[in-house]
Amino acid sequence: MKRMAMVIGLKPEKVTEYKELHANAWPEVLDQISKCGIRNYSIYLKEPENLLFGYWEYHGDNFAADAARMATHPKTQEWWALTDPCQTPLQNVAEGEMWAMMEEVFHHD
To answer: Among 22, 59, 107, 108, which one carries the catalytic annotation?
Structure first.
C-alpha cells in the first residue's frame, strides 16, 4: 500500500457546486476508483484559500497504468467534465496534470 496526496485550487464561485457534486458522487465513478486500487480516498477543502487536498491509499502495483485506465473510463470522463472547470491548477504542476502530486515527508502510525 502506498499513501498518495495531491493539491489543486478551487474557483471561489464553484465551491458550492463542487461540494454538491461530491455529496452526490456517481456510483460508477466510485466503483472505477475502487477497481483502480484506490481506497480510503478523501478530499478536503481549505477556505478561504480554496485549496483542495486529496489523499488516498493505493493498493496496486502500477499506479500509472491504473490512472490511465481510470482516464479512459467513460463515466469518469463525464465526471471530470463537471469537476475540472471548478478547479484551478497550481502554477507548477507537471505537464498534462491538473492536480499537483505531493511528496510525503512524514508519517506516523
So the answer is: 22
| Tens digit of each residue's pLDDT (9 = 90 or more) over 52-108 | 999 999 999 999 999 999 999 999 999 999 999 999 999 988 888 899 999 999 999
**Known catalytic residue at 108:** no
Task: Check residue 93 and give its pLDDT.
Answer: 87
- Residue 33 phi/psi, 5-degree rounding, is -55, -45
107 in any annotated domain: no
On whether residue 20 sits in a domain, the answer given is yes
Exposure class string for 4-25: b at 16+ Cβ within 10 A, else e: eebbbbbeeebbeebeeeeeee
